[in-house]
Amino acid sequence: MTTTAPIPSSSPILVVDDEQDIVLTLRDLLEAEGHQINVASTGVTALECVKHHSPSVVILDVKLPDMDGLLVLEKLAKAVPGLPIIILSSYTTLDDVTGPLEEQGAFAYLHKPINRSEIRSTVRQALKAYALAKKMERARHALYESEIRFQAVFQAAIDAIVLADHTGRIMSWNKAAESMFEYTAEEMFGKPLTLIMPSRYREAHTKGIQRLQTTGEAHVIGKTVVLHGLRKSGQEFPIELSLNSWTTGTHPSYSGFIRDLSLREPKNESPLQYQ
Predict the structure, then answer these.
(1) Angle at CA 209, nearest 5°, toward 205 and 211?
(2) Tens digit of each residue's pLDDT (9 = 90 or more) over 58-70
(3) Structure pTM?
(4) What pLDDT sits at residue 11?
């Protein structure tokens, strides 16, 4: 017969109950599974214990000597969102009185007397759920930090950087682009790239977008070309454009790195064959 090894707990399990028989039973049961157990006999002590010891699971009796266990549940759910709290009670109709406990922040609701198999199974599920929630939180935090770093580089770049979707509409643009073209990022969000092109380039650009969408054929992606840009004031100026693309979903997106050549010796203009 195959046995399942205990899941080690890197953080303690908090048992909140003032019945010593229940506490001893849970301690023996869960320590045998390899978990570290802390005990609180009152609601106040439980709140302090969660604050200082950061348990991964709380087993909470609803009948405590100093306060209603459901009030403790409410406070714990607000203090540590996502913390699995297993309600333990001798009441069999508690849901009928209070409503679904899951909606109040409980992970599960178990009845006394203790069912050892049910306790083990529920605690295992709670630990797995909490570990997954922590992993997702770390991933979200890493993504946020990555976005912060990207924005710092994006906004500090000397060259204008323009990001556009597959239809040629602007999704983002940095401070250098604001200075170069005289439009704010808010003004340009969702606007077509043709707004910053002299009129003689627009037809070729539109045809290039259409060609790329239908055939996938690209002419200038991955290349650097010399063209002209158009400021908000209507002034044309020479630019050097490096265009790249990437795909994260169904459609590609584009990034353009643009350098103002106004202070350089003019170069021969390349005919625009977008994408």
Answers:
(1) 115
(2) 999 988 999 888 8
(3) 0.56
(4) 62
* Residue 181: C-alpha distances to residues 164, 177, 184, 242 (Å): 16, 6, 9, 17
| Closest of 239, 28, 191, 179 to residue 37, by C-alpha | 28
Give the pLDDT confidence of 61-115 residue by residue, as tens digits.
988 999 888 899 999 988 888 899 999 887 655 554 455 666 677 898 888 888 8
Longest CA–CA span in the chain (Å) reads 90
Alpha-carbon gap, residue 253 to 101, rounded angstroms: 46
Q: Nearest 5 degrees, angle CA 139-CA 247-CA 218?
A: 160
Find out whether 16 and 67 touch, Cβ atoms under 8 Å.
no
Distances (CA, A) of 231 to 177, 206, 236, 239: 10, 20, 6, 11
**Rounded distance, CA 54 to CA 67, Å?**
21
Place of tokens 């250098």: 176
Residue 251 Cα distances to 184, 197, 213, angstroms: 26, 23, 9
Predicted confidence at residue 58, as pLDDT, reads: 95
* Residue ranges in 12-68 assigned as alpha helix (H): 20-32, 43-53
CA angle 116, 50, 25 (to 5 degrees): 20
CA atoms within 13 A on the CB side of 89: 19
Amino acid at 76: L
